[in-house]
Design brief:
four-stranded mixed β-sheet; alpha+beta; 535 residues; 22% strand; 35% helix; rod-shaped; 16 helices
């Protein structure tokens, strides 16, 4: 019994002692952190709130931010150099308030690792001054970046990418803001490249517009335009147009307008014939030069420039003719070829040739010279043709079956009101400028020509028709007869002159004298007057 009682007392003493120890330690941990506890990675085992905060502050004094440059060089700044201090909220107090002192045994095996939102303060001016003294901020280190760009043209390689150069120039605003951000976050490593602290090239190697421009330029270089102008061949390729290629600041590829215009002007100078003098071997075997030319090839500069730009931008290989605003029959020899209307105003005679074959020739009546309605000479293209037109002017309104204008309001048409054509009718009884034709001739011409058919109008001295010469001679005799006027004894000389001129005419010319009866009447009247006067 005594032994059991002693054992009981011993056990009780041990238990009481252990409990005293447990409660003592538990009481201790009501205002001290558990063994193994950390705050923001700092060991605060057995520390009260004040001591724990001192430990955290010491970590701030030891804080160091390592800055890594693009080339791997490192520099650092320390918190103590710019007065880095902590400004706490009540989180650490809260950790202690929520800590259960009696759970200290359990926490021996599962210690608390607290994270506290620690606010820090520092001297901003000191920090910036410190940053400005770093080697990475030295003026010698501020090597500006270079944008990626397009290489100069090379016949072997075309256009290539010239990569950007990173340089080492620091963007101070970004650098300052990143350092401040890292200090507030208590981060210890700042990579200047990864955090965008360097001034970047404006155009990087992967710039889509830049790469697209290079591709467009190299596509353009593939262009070959082969002009086939009649028997003549002319090639436009990169050896000519490469200097025309331009790239804007926005990386848009375009063609230099001035150089393009100069090239098209050169093409026009070479192939335009519309205003050139025409040489025509007439149906009379005599060559004439026609100066007033409105017929021929004329390059459409605007259309041609647009076509060239389109081809270059698409990198086309194409064979084609030029774009024209006016066309002609041939690029070889005479541009009117061997199909044309030949109008000889002097002879008042017209020839129609189609593919070198004479289809029809006919007399006509052209513009009235006495009223200055002259039919214009020149080389023209038929404007259009139409049937059943009504021709109108200030003093006329005339329906015709076949209307074929070639020089403004001047054209060829049938003239059924005329009973005669050719000769010298046009000099005194011609048209308002048009070429009046027999109906059948007008029909044949109409059926064989179309819009832009060449019409070559000229004068050729020495080709006056016998009919025309006879009509002119008769006209002069008629003038002498009309000049006799009222017959008197003194009229004898005028009458004899008129008679002599008439008698000198050929029979053909005599047939065209309109006032022969007036001559006879004058002669009879003179004879009577002489008898009466006893002469």
């Amino acid at each position: 019994m005594i032994k059991n009682k002693k054992l009981t007392i011993i056990i009780a003493v041990i238990v009481v002692t252990l409990l005293a120890i447990y409660f003592g330690i538990s009481f201790y941990f009501t205002n001290h952190f558990y063994i193994g506890s950390t705050i923001n990675g700092r060991d605060v085992s057995g520390k009260n709130i004040v001591a724990a905060k001192e430990i955290i502050q010491k970590s701030l004094d030891e804080y160091e931010l390592v800055i890594t440059e693009r080339d791997g060089t490192t520099e650092s700044i320390k918190g103590s150099d710019f007065s880095l201090e902590s400004t706490w909220n009540d989180e650490i107090d809260h950790f202690m308030d929520t800590q259960n002192g009696f759970a200290w045994i359990i926490k021996l095996f599962n210690p608390d690792n607290h994270r506290a939102e620690m606010n820090v303060s520092f001297d901003m001016e000191k920090l910036k001054e410190l940053l400005n003294t770093l080697p990475c901020m030295a003026e010698s280190k501020q090597i500006a970046p270079e944008s990626a760009q397009i290489s100069e043209y090379s016949p072997e390689n075309g256009y290539e990418l010239i990569p950007s150069v990173a340089g080492s120039q620091i963007n101070q605003n970004i650098f300052y803001s990143k350092v401040i951000e890292y200090v507030y976050g208590m981060k210890t490593e700042l990579d200047l490249d990864e955090t965008g602290c360097y001034v970047l090239p404006k155009i990087m190697d992967d710039n889509e517009d830049l790469l697209a421009a290079i591709e467009q330029l190299n596509t353009a270089l593939k262009t070959v335009i082969t002009y086939q102008v009649g028997e003549d061949t002319k090639v436009l390729d990169a050896s000519i147009f490469q200097p025309w290629l331009m790239v804007s600041d926005k990386m848009r590829v375009s063609i230099d307008e001035e150089q393009l215009s100069a090239y098209v002007k050169e093409l026009s100078s070479t192939y335009n014939t519309c205003y050139n003098k025409k040489r025509l071997m007439t149906s009379y075997g005599v060559e004439v030069t026609i100066s007033n030319s409105h017929y021929g090839w004329k390059v459409d500069s605007a259309a041609e420039k647009a076509a060239i730009v389109a081809s270059i931008m698409a990198g086309e290989q194409i064979t084609r003719d030029l774009n024209y605003s006016m066309t002609a029959n041939s690029h070889t020899g005479n541009d009117y070829g061997n199909s044309y209307v030949e109008i000889n105003l002097t002879a008042q005679h017209l020839f129609l040739y189609v593919n070198g074959n004479l289809v029809i020739e006919t007399d006509f009546v052209s513009g009235n010279l006495s009223k200055s309605y002259n039919t214009p000479t020149g080389a023209f293209g038929l404007t259009y043709k139409t049937k059943n037109a009504t021709l109108r002017g200030d003093d006329y309104e005339t329906p015709v079956d076949y209307w074929m204008p070639f020089a403004g309001n001047v054209g060829m048409h049938d003239a059924t009101w005329r009973g005669d054509f050719g000769g010298s009718i046009y000099k005194r009884d011609g048209s308002h400028g048009c070429v009046n034709l027999p109906h059948s001739a007008a029909k044949t011409i109409y059926e064989n020509i179309n819009t832009n058919f060449p019409v070559l109008v000229y004068e050729l001295s020495g080709t006056e028709s016998a009919k025309g010469i006879a009509q002119d001679q008769a006209y002069e005799v008629d003038k002498l007869i009309k000049a006799i006027g009222a017959v008197g004894i003194e009229s004898e000389g005028a009458i004899q002159s008129a008679r002599a001129s008439y008698d000198a005419l050929s029979d053909t010319a005599k047939a065209y004298v309109k006032h022969y009866q007036a001559l006879i009447d004058s002669e009879n009247a003179l004879s009577i007057l002489k008898e009466q006067a006893g002469i």
